[in-house]
Each structure stands twice: as C-alpha cells, then as structure tokens.
TrEMBL record, chains A, B, C, D, E, F, G, H, I, J:
Catalyzes the reaction of cyanate with bicarbonate to produce ammonia and carbon dioxide. Keywords: Lyase. It catalyses: cyanate + hydrogencarbonate + 3 H(+) = NH4(+) + 2 CO2. Gene3D superfamilies: Cyanate lyase, C-terminal domain (3.30.1160.10), lambda repressor-like DNA-binding domains (1.10.260.40). Its EC number is 4.2.1.104. The active site is at 88, 91, 114. Residues 75-147 form the Cyanate lyase C-terminal domain. GO terms for molecular function: cyanate hydratase activity; DNA binding. This is Cyanate hydratase. HAMAP family: Cyanate_hydrat. Belongs to the cyanase family. Pfam families: Cyanate_lyase. The lineage of its organism: Bacteria, Bacillati, Cyanobacteriota, Cyanophyceae, Leptolyngbyales. The gene is cynS.
Amino acid sequence: MMTIPEISQKLFAAKKAKGLSFADLESVLGRDEVWIAALFYRQASASEEEATKLLEALGLSLDLVPELVSSTVKGLGPIVPTDPLVYRFYEIMQVYGMPMKEVIHEKFGDGIMSAIDFTLDIEKVEDPKGDRVLVTMNGKFLPYKKW
Amino acid sequence: MMTIPEISQKLFAAKKAKGLSFADLESVLGRDEVWIAALFYRQASASEEEATKLLEALGLSLDLVPELVSSTVKGLGPIVPTDPLVYRFYEIMQVYGMPMKEVIHEKFGDGIMSAIDFTLDIEKVEDPKGDRVLVTMNGKFLPYKKW
Amino acid sequence: MMTIPEISQKLFAAKKAKGLSFADLESVLGRDEVWIAALFYRQASASEEEATKLLEALGLSLDLVPELVSSTVKGLGPIVPTDPLVYRFYEIMQVYGMPMKEVIHEKFGDGIMSAIDFTLDIEKVEDPKGDRVLVTMNGKFLPYKKW
Amino acid sequence: MMTIPEISQKLFAAKKAKGLSFADLESVLGRDEVWIAALFYRQASASEEEATKLLEALGLSLDLVPELVSSTVKGLGPIVPTDPLVYRFYEIMQVYGMPMKEVIHEKFGDGIMSAIDFTLDIEKVEDPKGDRVLVTMNGKFLPYKKW
Amino acid sequence: MMTIPEISQKLFAAKKAKGLSFADLESVLGRDEVWIAALFYRQASASEEEATKLLEALGLSLDLVPELVSSTVKGLGPIVPTDPLVYRFYEIMQVYGMPMKEVIHEKFGDGIMSAIDFTLDIEKVEDPKGDRVLVTMNGKFLPYKKW
Amino acid sequence: MMTIPEISQKLFAAKKAKGLSFADLESVLGRDEVWIAALFYRQASASEEEATKLLEALGLSLDLVPELVSSTVKGLGPIVPTDPLVYRFYEIMQVYGMPMKEVIHEKFGDGIMSAIDFTLDIEKVEDPKGDRVLVTMNGKFLPYKKW
Amino acid sequence: MMTIPEISQKLFAAKKAKGLSFADLESVLGRDEVWIAALFYRQASASEEEATKLLEALGLSLDLVPELVSSTVKGLGPIVPTDPLVYRFYEIMQVYGMPMKEVIHEKFGDGIMSAIDFTLDIEKVEDPKGDRVLVTMNGKFLPYKKW
Amino acid sequence: MMTIPEISQKLFAAKKAKGLSFADLESVLGRDEVWIAALFYRQASASEEEATKLLEALGLSLDLVPELVSSTVKGLGPIVPTDPLVYRFYEIMQVYGMPMKEVIHEKFGDGIMSAIDFTLDIEKVEDPKGDRVLVTMNGKFLPYKKW
Amino acid sequence: MMTIPEISQKLFAAKKAKGLSFADLESVLGRDEVWIAALFYRQASASEEEATKLLEALGLSLDLVPELVSSTVKGLGPIVPTDPLVYRFYEIMQVYGMPMKEVIHEKFGDGIMSAIDFTLDIEKVEDPKGDRVLVTMNGKFLPYKKW
Amino acid sequence: MMTIPEISQKLFAAKKAKGLSFADLESVLGRDEVWIAALFYRQASASEEEATKLLEALGLSLDLVPELVSSTVKGLGPIVPTDPLVYRFYEIMQVYGMPMKEVIHEKFGDGIMSAIDFTLDIEKVEDPKGDRVLVTMNGKFLPYKKW
C-alpha cells in the first residue's frame, strides 16, 4: 500500500483550491510538469528558490520551504503496483525490459541508462482514432567501469 | 530467475553467428529493432511472412515459423528485476509512476496509457558529456468506460 | 490488508442509513449497480453531474463532489485475496486464465481483452437447485500493435 | 514461472499438427471450447469417453486416456501473472472484486459464487469500433451455512 | 500482521466482563461455539435475531446489530501465520493437503470439499496421557461441473 | 510450485497399474488410508515391515524399502496453494483459525493442538442433497510449559 | 515490521523506571528471566498469581492482571528478521536446521522437538578471549503418531 | 524448495551403505556429529585431513577431497521452512527472538551472539515422560564497535 | 515501508533547527559522522556521556538520554529498498556479493566479514569529471569455528 | 536459489585445476581481482583481449571468448541472501543504508553513488586481534538532474 506524505497532500489540496494545473506551474517554475509532479510526491527536491516560487503560487506558507528542499526517501508504491495506469509501466518493464537491454547493449556496449541523470516528458498527441500518450525518457548512458 | 525460451536461444545464436545487429534486421523485416528484439524473446508474435524473412536472414530452418507465429506467455523476469539495466525501468516506475499518473490524468482524464496499442523506440543521442539513451513510448490513451 | 478510503466509508454509511440498494441507485444515476459500487470504493470516477446526483440521493453534502470526481489510485486488495468471495475470482484466473488465453488468441489473434474499455454486469438467475450468479464481462479486444 | 505439464504439450502439438481449433473440438466432444482448453492444461478432468474422443480426434494414442482422466493439481500460474492477457483478469479482481462482493451480497446475502459448480464461456462480438470479448461466468451461489 | 476489527474488540471485552464462555453463548444463541467465535471475529454474519440475542447476552447496545449482520471481508491473518496454534493448521495443510486430496478424489471424484457449506466443531477428549483436541470438519462435496 | 518426489511417482504409478485404492491398501497395511497417502507423498515414514508390505502389495522391488523408511523433508506445496481442494484448507485456516484458537484456549488454556501426535481421517457421508466430506483431526493438546 | 503490544510498552517502561533487571524479576516470580521477557512481549501467559506478583514488583495497577493472563497471538516479527541479533537465530535455522534434523532423526527417529513443551535458558560464560552466550533449548521429542 | 547439493547426496548414500551414524563419524573425525552433518550438507568446510578421513571412512574416492574443502554458498532452505522439525526453530526465533534479545542486551550490552564463532550440540535426555532434545548453542558475544 | 522512530524525528528536527551537519557533530562527539547518523536512526546505541553531549549540542532535553542509550531493534527498511541511493547498495550486494565472497575466501579462508566489529566511513573525493563517493568498510574477519 | 552460469563453472574448475588465485590473475590481466571474480560470475564483461588473456591463463579454449565478452543479465542471488558472508552486506544496507544516505546527501546534495561508474577493492589488514577485511567502494556521485 502506498502512503502519500503529508506535505504532498497539502500541495495537492492547495493546487486544487487554486485551480492550477501542472502545466500552469510549469510556466511559474520554469520546470517540466512531470518534474513538478515528482516534487509534489517528494520524489524530487527543489532549490530554495523553486520551493519559494511554488509555495507562493499555491498560496502556502513559506515555512514549508525546508520540506521541499530536503532529500527524501524515494519510491512510492507497492512492489507490484495495483493501479492500472502505473501497472502498465511495470508491464512494459516485464515485457520489453529484456528487448530494450539487448538493443541498448548493441548500440552502447555494456552499461545502463541512468535514472538519475534523466528526464521524462509526457505529451498528448491528438489522434482521430484516439489520442495518444507520448512518454519520452532521456537518460545518460553509463558504461560499466572496469578496474 | 528468468528462463529464456529455447527458441530465443536459437535466434540469438544464429544472429551472433551471422554477425547481424538488430539494426540490420530492421531493414530486413521493415520492423523496429526493439520490436524484433521483443520477437526474439517471444514477447511479440510475427506474421508468417515476417517469421519467414527473419529465419531466412538468420539462416535458420523454416520449420521454426510456427514457433515465431504463435501467441506466447509474456513477461520474462523476476518480480523485481536484479539486472541493473532492467531495474532502472522498475525504479522509474517506482519514482515517477505516480507523478506520470497525475500528469496523464490532468491531460487526458481518468484512464491509462495502453501497453498493447503501443510502440517503443530507442535512440542513441551522441553527447560530448556522455551519450544519452532516448526511449520513446507511444501508447493509445484508453479512457475508462462507464456503464 | 485492504484499506477502505474514508470517502467510501461515508458513502456506505449514508447508503445504509437511507436504506438504499445499489439497484435503487442504478435508477437514480442511470449507471449499472456494479459501476456504482466501484465508484463507492473509488475504483471509478464520476462526472460532476453523477457525483451530484449520487450525493443528493444519499443525503450527503455536495462538498464531497470533488472527492468523487478525482482520479484515484486503483486496486484495493492484498496480493492474494483472503476473502472467499473475492478469492474465487483469483482462483478462476489461476485455473482458467491460460485456457481463456488460448481461446481468445484462437478467436482474435495476439492481443488482450481490455479491462478499461470494459463493462461488468452481475445478475441473479433463480434456480430451484440453487440460485446462480451470472457475471458478464465485456471488454474491447486490443490487438498487439507492431512497429 | 508457469510449468506446462508434458501431457499439455503433447495435446497442443497434436492439435496444431491436425490444424484443429478448440471450436472444432467443441463439436467433437460436445463440450465447450473453454472447458476443452482447460482440459488441455489439465485444469479439468475428462471421462474415459471424453478422453477417448479427444485423443482420437487428435490422432494420439489411447494410452494417454488415464492422463486425461486423473485428478490433477490445479492452478497454473505465478502468484501475480506477468502475461498481459491473464493479468487483466487479475486486475479485474483487484479493481472490481470488492464492488462485485457488495453487489452479490446485496442480491444474495452472505456467501460466494462457486468456482466449481461453474461454467465460463467466451464469445467474440463483432463491432466496427473494435471487436469485443464477451466472458460469461455462471456459478452457483453458495450461502454460508450456519451451525 | 493481523488487525482485529473494532467490533470484535467490543464483543470480547463484553464477554470477559460478563464472565461468559463461548459454551455459555452456545446455549443462548442455539449456535455452535466455533460459529459464535467466528461471528466475534466477523468471519460469519448473524441474522437480526441472532445479533439481538448476542448483544443482549453481552449487555451491549442493540445499535450494534447492523455491525453483526453485514457481510464482511473475511480472512484474518498473515499469509503464513506466526501464532503456533494457528500455524499447526497451516502445517496440516502443507503436510496432509495433498494426501487428503488423493483420498477425497478417490472417494468422490474430481471436486472439492466446500468451505462455505461447511461446519466445524471442536471437542475436548479427556485422556490420561494428555487431553486431545478433536476437530471435525464437515463440508459438502462439490463435483466440478462440466460444460 | 510443488515437486513430487520420484519415489512418490513410482508408488502412484504402481498403485494405478495394480488398480488398488488407498482403501484397499488400508486393509493390507492396517494403517489408515490418509496415513498411507501421506506415506506415498513421503510426508510420513514407514517401519521396515510396513514398507515391505506396501511394496509387495504394489509389486515393487524391496530395494525401495529404505526410501520409505527414511525421514524426509516434509511440506509439499507452494506458500499459498493454488489447487482449489487444498486451498480450501488454507481458507479454513484463514477464516476459522482465530475462532478455533479462542475456543481451544477456552477449553484447554494456553497451548496448541499437536500436528505430530495427531491423526486425520476422511469419511464420505452420503446425503441426498449432496454427499459430504467429513474430516476428523485428533491432536494431543500441548500446554505451554513454564520455566 | 514488528508491532510491540501496548501492554509490553507499559511493562518495559515500569521496569526501566524501577531499575529492575530480568534477573531481579526472576527471584520475584520464581520463573526464568527468558520466560519473563517472553511474558513482557506477551509471548507467554501468566497465572493470576504470577501476574499479580509481577505487577506489584513493577508498581503497576492490578487492573492489568487480565492482560497478562489471557492467551495472545504469538509471533512478533517480520518474516525474515532485520535485527542482527534476532537474524542470527534465523541464520542458525538456515545453516544448521537440516544438519540438526539429521542428527535428531538419527537419535530419536521421525518426529520433532516440541517448541511448546520447551524451555530456553541464556547464560553468560566469561572468557578472556571474549565472553560467550550460552543458549540452552530443551524440548520434548514428539514422535510422529501413525494411525 | 530446498536443493540438496550432489556431493551431499553421495555422502548420505555412502553413510547409509556403510551403516554408519553421525555418532560413529564423530569418533573417526574428532568433530561433533552436528558439525559433521553440517559438512554433509556443505554448510561447513573440512580441512584436507578431515576430508580424507571422512571419505576413507565412507569408502568414497579421495578425488572428492576438494569438494569438501572448498567454501560454499550456505543456507539451505526456503524462506519459511515447511518441514515441521526445522519450522520449530523458525517458531522459536519468532516467539522467543525478542525476549532473547532483551536478556542478552541486559547481560552483555548492545551486540549479538555470533553464529560463526559458534558451536551447536544436540543431546538426548532420556525421560520417562518422554525423551527430550537438548540443544546447546554457544556463540561469542560480539559488542557493536563504535567509531 | 520504512517507519522512522519518533526519537529520530526529534533529533533530525533539532539538528536542522541548529543548522548543524553530521560533520559538526563529529567534532562534538569524537565519533564518526556515519556512526552519529546511525545513532540518529537508532541503529547504534550511545553511552550516557555520548548521549548527553549530543543532546546538549542539539539543545534537547537530557530526559532523552535513555532513549539514545537503550538497545533497539535494528534494520530500517523494506526488504528490497525502493530509494535509489539505498538500492545501489542492494545492487552492489546482488552483483558483487558472490565475487567478494570468492576473493574473501581466497584471502582469509572460510568465514565472514563481521558487520558488528565493523566501521564504515564516507568521504568525498573531488574530481573534475564528477566528484566521487568513497565508502570504506572495515570489518573483522571471523573464521568459522569447528567443534 | 542462486544458479551459477555454466561458463562460470568452467572458469572456476580451470582456475582450481591450474592452482591459480584471483591475485595471480590480477597480474595476468592487469585488472583487479574483484573485477575478475565478477567476470567469472559473468557480472562483468571482458574485452576480446581480456577474454583471450584469461582463457589462455586458464588453459581453456578461445572458443569461449564470446561467452566472456557478451553482456549478461546481472544479479545472482536470492532476494535476501542466505549465505552468511553475503548476508552481512545485506545487513549493512539494512542497518547503515539510511545513515549513509544522510551523510551522502549532506556532503553532495540530492543524488546517488553510482554502482556502474564504480570500483570495489578488498584488502586484508593483518591485526594481532584478528585480521580485518577492508572493502573500499568508489562510485561517482550522480546528482539528480532537474528538467
């Protein structure tokens, strides 16, 4: 079971009260909406300036700045997610994880795609047969160091 | 622990013997290299024509056509992957799953990104500070039906 | 262990106090009773209009509208359900999952039955040898996209 | 990980060699195709007569009759299925299990739907917007006995 | 970890305060003491009349009637029980489950013993070498339906 | 997943070939059929004499005596059984485990029912409304020793 | 994660406040210090007399007597303990469990060491190379009953 | 499920063929029978001399010396043992682990009992009311180092 | 999910309020900053003197001394950590655990590195290509005792 | 349970036959012994040149070069290791993981220590009170990228 941190609940409540979308906050902070949503769930850490801007936009007390700036324990969910939207990303890892591994090794050699030096964007692609979700992940390739 | 199907092992061995890359096979089959790697692991199913082309390119017997055409039990790995490259995709789901959920709901309403009506591409972006892996997922948005 | 959301508890308490059945609510909302029960557990999301109708029928404050409209984290239960009624559906998946897979692949090709573009009805079939539960699932077939 | 019994593999190989569908076998055995698929996976047990008919239709030795008639250990899969088609039935149980429980209790009182005195049919409903899978489960309601 | 429902705690507290045993309650309700203990843990549901009798015997408010009458989510414990007394029943299932399966199939054919159309009694058998616990389970045999 | 020991497979094959039931073996060995089934699965250990009688009855080589006499690692199944017949005993433990604990403590004090100094019988009770399975467990009560 | 019962917390707090060791309590109760520590964690049950003596020694209200006398759900910890001291006993079971099984079977035949008719003592053995912990377990051998 | 190493199977087979007990081997090797049983399961490593003596006593080829001398991956069993004899040691850890922790901390301060600088003996104590198993563990106390 | 003890929360809050780093506390206590961080999470135990110094430095009441001095249940996290920083240490164990085992056995013989008689230091190594984390673990080698 | 790849078994057998230590191979390959042990377990990948040198040193066929050069699925062990030596590294992660996280965040900001751009050395430090194992991990700090 997932436990949403208290600070996240405050941020979501204020966002709803102000009627702001993550896209709105994107222009306020100059950060991508996914990163901002990650900050809401405290899966990312803000600078003092970013925290201040966000809290002001949400009409929340600046006393909360330290709660947005600190490093946190990351990873939100159950081991296998039950939520269908999140589960599909688990399924992609289960079904396409090894094929991706093969292609990445072929293109880059032995190593991994960083999930830290990493960005993730989501776009809506309108389509008459049904709109599509476009997820773009961009991570630095890290070759295994030998020693 | 992951068990690689026997047919996958034959395909990989032939590919290595022929010195072919997935990129080479892409031009043979007219399918993306990730999809072809998924076919190798039998996470995807070929048409008879695709199976024939692939087996010919790999110098394998056409008797194997049915083994590439049949539907299979998908999902390869352990519950939590131990391989660092595959794990990073698990980590992305753990850390960014809920933020993605928020942004997708905001953009599209209640529903999910399909992992079936779905494509996945991998590109290498050269970068003097370290090349980058670009993963693009494109899935149809499926709104929850009400009844 | 399952945690029932607070909003669900309020809805169930009001329903019991009003002496309403899900069948009664079906005529109020123009939605199927199973979908309404799913809404009670916040496994489905209402439109503003549906939320208003429901809250009025239950004699609850319209302040709760946003709690019925928002998207939620779905999936209620433990990994393997302990409740005998719910477990039987787990057992059906364990025993008949693969046979269903064979038959669906034979009829439709490689793909899945959507659980999103999906409806589920429950009917009581009276029978002198013991009444029967009739569960009808109707999901769109989604063929695997190739790319 | 799922282990397919050896007898199942023989049955599937013979069925493929004969070019028979489960629908074809339905008319041979006078049993539903899903039940026959369950028999293939040894999740169901045949009578001697059914076993004989099936083996003859498949061109297999009648020495296998006892392997189709005996009771077996049922339940095929991993605890949480990784295969996307089978997983969707797990997801339905996760998302709609409790709502179904509420509706069944309301209609029938405290008890369960039997998964033993139970039938399961699959139909293809053609639809211009995408064909649909219709799954019908019909199980006897079993009220809790008091003592 | 096991969570005891609040209503159970009230019932146990009142029973202790009144100095009543389950055997005493057996004569009040005309139900077996094991069934009554199951009702205490809300693993069984009472009729209004049974609930009233029980609450009166325990000196509790009749406002609690609905909490004893409603259907509940059953199954109390951790996946593998840690309590030694309860564990022994898990051990019996681990050690004797398959032998019982063989004998039941031999006597009855393919099917199961119902745990719903089912009664369970516990008796104390005095014995100079150490008293013995006699557990009698009586469940309807349910043959697998074919279709 | 359950692994059936090789010796068990030999015993079951010989029993089938000889057309013997466990009830038949009961009269040969002077032991209960459930205990004999437990011996088949090597969840119980025979004396040399019992092993000899059994192997003779089954027409198997007496060289197997030591394989029936030795102590073995007991416990056959997966953590949560997937087989419906065996699962029902898991369910009984989940649903009635704590109620049984209460009644046993009330009748005997703090302690457990032994699963070692223990017998288990299965009887078929014919009933026009459906035959019933009668399982009788008889275990020594072991009070907790204080020191 | 381990949940310490409330009564345990009261007992530990009072013991600390009084500056008493388990060894001190041993002389008060005439019970071994390990058993008393087990009582503190409610892994053992006291007689009324023992409970009274203990509460008086700790300066706690005699109203707590029933909380020490009742039978409780035993087993405190996570499935695999994370605490290094407790883990070592798990490790001993992992590494030496099967060797102990062999030796016990050789000395006693098929059966087990009771963990109920059982005592456990801990002594400190001073040693210039480092003091040693001496744990003595004494459990009745229970031979498997045949029937 | 437990996998017994091949070398262990050879050792056990030879021991049975020679009719030797671990107690017999104790006098051959000058090591305790439990340690020897641990060596059989390759949970302990022999010196070349010990390996030679053991293999000679068992009438096995000295080519096996390296297989007894090498360090191995230790820990035999499933996470929670299903075998009743081994399980009781798991139960002791579950029930008495925390009480032992309290008493050890009180006697020694913060630290652990080593399971490496450790011995384990098993004795049979004859008793007219039922023989008893005496297990003596003797491990060095290791205080937590501060730095 | 990880539960941070209340005392830890107090210590971290006070440290933040005072603007102190673990490096600052290192000079106050004469203990390494990692050990102090372990004390904050109550994975280590202080002497009375250390506790007093720490509480004074943090401006907290000396009433908390006993909460820093007592032995605690150690081990903080979920079985597989979800936090990426902590996970990397799990990954190192998964990937390099067995290689380390080989090298340690080769250098020292059969035994382990103690995690109790153990120190752990972290240093920042500045590097123009990206600073590096240097973790130094120093544990006593414990050879397996034979007996 | 851990499965050692076949190639690893060949390498270990040859190393034993040649009487070579990892330290010997260190001078042959010009790589650290831990990295070479990781290569043995196929947790690292060799260049063609390294593979050739290693196979020649071990007297193995150069046909095995591709088996040392290919990228592999990494991560060897069970989820929680049972081997005491490997477990201690799991324990260090459980006990010191969060303290390390605090100190690393304090020294470096939000980010992780790479386990890919990473080296690991093991040294033996002789000590009259018992030799010590010195493990040095050196990983690049990766700050979380913002976007």
